[in-house]
Amino acid sequence: MKSLHPKNQFIATVLAFAVIPMSGLATDTYLPSMPSMAKDLRLPESSIQLTLSIFLISYGLSQFFAGSVVDAFGRYKVSIISLALFVVSFIITATTKDIMLIYAMRVLQGTLSGFAVVSKRAFFVDVYEGEKRKHYLSIMTIVWSVGPIIAPFIGGYLQKMFGWQSNFYLLAAYSFIVLILELIFSGETLKVKSKFQFSFLINEYTLMFKTKDFFYGMIMCGISYAVVIFFNLCGAFIIEHKMGYSEVTAGYVSLILGFAWMTGGFLGKALIRKAFLPKIRYANFLQVILIILMFLGSYVVSNIYSLVIFAFAIHVTAGFIFNNYFSYCIGRFPNSAGIAGGLTGGVAFMITSAISYSIVALIKPEIQLEVAEGYFILGILGLLVLSIVKFRKAHI
């Protein structure tokens, strides 16, 4: 396996940034197409919504052991295999009308996303040191959040012009281009390979699960991101089917809410020096208040503008809580940051998928009021977890 040539380091870095948002592109590009997929495949909304949930579960599960795999087999090899399989799986998804085959491909795509993203996170640690490493890791976080912002915006236009299959053809083409460029310019960056030790992983995970503040942090990450995925599961159906707007409009709404999530993340970084738990509790209280206002306001005004305004404010608080808790969990075990990051991401995305899909299946949101009800459940779950954390802290 060829090593990364120093003269190609910059291009390889750009390619790493191109792979980082893959999970967001694979989940959000086809959001405006979900109603059309349901109609074309003659399936209920819940069947199409499940394609997003099983992707997130697979993405979460793969992160449990992806770090150890890339340490044992190399970053470059894992990245190349993932990109090649992405191309095949996206083409299959676009060319079939068998929902079970689509489910299988979404499981594969979620798993591949976990491996690809983890391999590229490790790339920056391998190649850069000191301030440069901090600089690129900071940019990586921003790039990761860009995917969910631009993806549905592009997907809305593709859906209107070419149909839902075009979203997956685009993802296949994107993966293929990055794959070819990786083969030409990139290379292995891992200096020393380690053995894949399952027993070591189990011991580390056991320790982390027993660490209560870390455990509750993972849960809060899952609940916070569930706010976003809950809207993603039902938003396009409400905007297109119930309100009568186009797929492009649904894409614009996702774009706006993506900026809300990013805004929350930037606020989290700006207030990083503030006391941790108090600022999290304030954000959660504000979130619950906003949800109650949305609930009450739904009896006065209920249109696309009020829906987006309330959702935007609520998603800012969710982004703030997620950014703070995710950073906290990764830094909780500095000597095992990779494993801690993998476990946090794995548990968080599994919780996100389970909670968001369950709430949508229970409420079946069709109007703004019912969206507020779903948000309220998530807000109260967050409040409950933070209350437990406060109670335990007071009795230690």
What does this structure look like?
The chain crosses the membrane at residues 50-69, 76-94, 136-155, 167-185, 214-239, 251-272, 284-301, 307-326, 338-363, 375-391. It is a single chain. The chain folds into 2 domains: 7-186, Up-down Bundle (Growth Hormone, Chain: A), CATH 1.20.1250.20; 198-396, Growth Hormone, Chain: A, CATH 1.20.1250. The chain has helices at residues 9-19, 22-28, 34-40, 45-73, 75-95, 99-127, 130-162, 165-185, 198-210, 212-242, 247-270, 276-297, 304-332, 337-363, 368-394. The chain has 396 residues and is mainly α. Helix 1 packs antiparallel against helix 6, helix 10 (212-242) packs antiparallel against helix 15 and helix 14 (337-363) packs across helix 15 (368-394).
CATH C-level name of the largest domain: Mainly Alpha
CATH architecture level-2 label of the largest domain = Up-down Bundle
Average pLDDT over all residues: 89
Give the CATH topology of the largest domain. Growth Hormone, Chain: A
Spell the H/E element sequence. HHHHHHHHHHHHHHH
Broad shape: globular
In CATH, the homologous superfamily of the largest domain goes by the name: MFS general substrate transporter like domains
Q: Please give the share of residues in helix.
A: over 70%
Fraction of residues in β-strands: under 5%
Main location: membrane
Organism: Chryseobacterium gilvum
Keywords: Membrane, Transmembrane, Transmembrane helix, Transport
Domain Major facilitator superfamily (MFS) profile: 12-396
